[in-house]
Amino acid sequence: MPLPFSKIKAVVGDENLLSSPEELHCYSFDASKMRFVAEGVALPADAGQISALVKLANEYRFPVYPRGAGSGMVGACLPRGGLVIVGNRLNKILEIDPDNMTAVVEPGVITGEFQKAVAKHGLFYPPDPASLAFSTMGGNVAMCSGGPRAVKYGVTRDYLLGLEVVLPTGEIVRTGTRTMKGVVGYDLTRLMAGSEGTLGIFTKIVARLIPAPEAVRTMTAVFSSLDCALNAICEIIRDRIVPSTIELMDQQTICAVENYLGMGLPVEAEAFVLIEVDGPGVVLDGQIERIEAICKKAGAAKTEAAKSDEERDRLWKARRSISPALGQIRPGKINEDVTVPRTKIPELIRSIRSLAQKYDLTIVCFGHAGDGNIHTNIMLDRKDESERIRAGKAVEELFAIVLGLQGTISGEHGIGIAKSPFIELEVGEGGLEAMRKIKKALDPLNIMNPGKMFVSDRSFLDGGF
Fold it and tell me: How far is CA 194 from the centre of its chain?
């Protein structure tokens, strides 16, 4: 059945319902590079309008697809017909409470802008996805986003106290509390975090804040052996230092970034590690000295500590440039965010090298080594059918390897469309069936972001590769 455009316009207004091919194209893709087109895109102004749209969807039996900024990596917001509901007009920071260290925001607030706003009060919101300059708080909650600081501070769900949510049947409910403690009933807040738009649409987010760290120190270490670098990372944690960030670049990543920036990176090195500590300034110089000593003992050829904010920015420049730099290797990539226990990273990397040889592929590894989250980028040309098939087989084997190492197939990107055929490998038949029952109980007509997380057919993934 086609969308009831007149009814939808009555809710959001003519100017806030998009339906031309050009407008629909803008909401047909995300960072996964897959593409599916909606029939319409609605831009509601508040929770009441979202509730009314969802009730219409139940009445007329059309699917709705919640969307934030579209920066996700797994196609979780992509439509398959139906109506896209975009939350970007709900973009206000409603409250910052410095005394209780909480804040209330609407879902369209940009994460990086929220961090700047709370920083003016001496407070800190730690989750820092790579897309924080443009991704939204609602999208971050939906995907339970992480980032480099997760090694010390955790991920989005760890800073989530409560939500206002429009359920798949149109009711508006509030979950959680404004307090640090609260154990009344089921933890619906945690259930919603990471639900990828399948269980509801967020209209308010109650966030937990912490005091801003007094100071930050940043350093890098260069290793001629990747194993030595990974051993150094484990030794740092064993020494009871928990950096806020430990980022790893393998040799192929180093070379790509150096070709892109020409900043004098050591292209002969097998590993480049960026480490950051934060906290009371009086202890940080000592921590950096201890980390440098650990790295040198583990075989670091060179260490460098930033002496100013400018030097810190320079050290981070290489890490921030990885994504555009990789385009020099191949025109496309499959970006997996597999995660294993830290001590299993060396075995994971060795297995990935074997996969690259087996399938004649370039596989680049970098990412959040401090929490075991290694971004595994399988470089390919999507127009090359043979290469695409080999890459698909490599992904399947990679997931089997990761699960064999007691890891997870997604540390922060989520499941969406791209990983839905593989979810049962990790959660098992019983776990998947329990999730399906929760989905059916809250969304009996399956109108909220259908076709995500629970799809077993792999054939449509070729377009994403």
Answer: 10
Q: List CB contacts of 91: < 8 A, sequence separation 6 or more.
A: 106, 108, 109, 110, 136
* Cα dihedral sign, 329-332-336-337: positive
> How far apart are the C-alpha atoms of 253 and 363, rounded to whole Å?
10
Torsion sign over Cα 204, 209, 212, 213:
negative
Which 8-state DSSP code applies to residue 136? B
Phi, psi (rounded to 5 degrees) for 170: 105, -15
Helices (H), 26-109: 47-60
Instruction: Say what the pTM is.
Output: 0.94
Angstrom distance (rounded) from CA 295 to CA 291: 6
Encoded tokens for 252: 């192929």
The rounded average pLDDT for each run of 10 residues, N- to C-terminus, in the chain (465 residues) is 94 98 96 93 98 98 97 96 97 98 98 98 96 95 96 97 98 96 96 98 98 96 95 93 96 95 94 96 95 97 93 89 90 95 92 97 95 96 94 97 98 96 96 97 97 74 43
Torsion of CA 301, 225, 392, 27, to 10 degrees: -20
Which residue from 158, 160, 184, 162 is spatially nearest to 173, judged by alpha carbons? Answer: 162
The alpha carbon dihedral of 445, 451, 457, 459 has a sign of positive
Backbone angles phi, psi at 7, to 5 degrees: -70, -40
Cα 360 from Cα 350, distance rounded (Å):
15
Distance between CA 132 and CA 432 in Å, rounded?
31
What is the three-class DSSP state of 257? helix
Using CA atoms, how far apart are residues 321 and 286, in angstroms rounded to an integer? 30
